[in-house]
Design goal:
The chain is an alpha/beta fold. It folds into 2 domains: 69 residues, 434 Repressor (Amino-terminal Domain) (Orthogonal Bundle); 111 residues, Response regulator (Rossmann fold). It contains 10 helices and 7 strands. Helix 1 runs antiparallel to helix 5, helix 2 packs across helix 3 and helix 7 runs parallel beside helix 8. The relative contact order is 0.11. The mean pLDDT is 86.
């Protein structure tokens, strides 16, 4: 869990008698960024981990290994306003991605809040979500984390051209299948560990 990295960072920072603000100033980031790292809601990337090691005068390998252990289970979400579709599709994702943390949402607003608190590796988005467009939801996810992979789900082929202009990794027709999901995973813009994949 990310908590391991968060606790390690906080322990090292306090041992160095630095406040979050002081560390942030040395890192050229905001205090809230350091707070997110220490709460476990965000993990710094490799460049930031190297910078942290320099600022804290600590072994970079310690931070890198703890970060790797903290980020071993990718977050995968599916957003569809039909519960019956989610109940059938989520087990397929669990079959294909047995090591992922898989969460379904029927409300786009809840998915956005989840994305703000968790780094999303992959989001499967229905294009028609009641009053909300999955295309707009994709843009919001990419604003939160530009490295989120998005695969659109729809029963309507005519959306495919518009879907490609959003920066998504893929597009698949409903109903989803394990084979279809595996095919889409090969085209991710930002691949993540699929260890344990069948």
């Amino acid at each position: 869990m990310r908590i391991l990295f968060a606790e390690t960072l906080k322990k090292i920072r306090t041992e160095k008698n630095l406040s979050q603000r002081e560390l942030a100033e040395r890192m050229y980031v905001t205090r809230s960024t350091v707070a997110r790292w220490e709460s476990g809601s965000r993990l710094p990337d490799a460049v930031m981990i190297y910078r942290l090691a320099q600022c804290l005068d600590t072994d970079v390998n310690t931070l890198l290994s703890v970060a790797a252990e903290s980020d071993d289970a990718p977050n995968v979400i599916m957003v569809d306003d039909r519960k019956i579709f989610l109940s059938g599709a989520l087990p397929i994702l669990e079959e294909v991605l047995p090591n992922a943390i898989i969460t379904g949402f029927t409300r786009p607003s809840e998915a956005i809040e989840y994305a703000k608190a968790n780094r999303i590796a992959l989001a499967f988005l229905d294009i028609e979500l009641g009053k909300t467009s999955g295309l707009d939801l994709c843009k919001k996810f990419l604003e939160i984390n530009p490295r989120t992979n998005v695969i659109f789900l729809t029963a309507y082929v005519e959306y495919s051209f518009e879907a490609w202009s959003t920066g998504a990794s893929g597009f698949t027709l409903k109903p989803i299948t394990a084979e279809g999901v595996r095919a889409q995973l090969k085209n991710l813009r930002y691949p993540f560990s699929l260890e344990g994949e069948k």
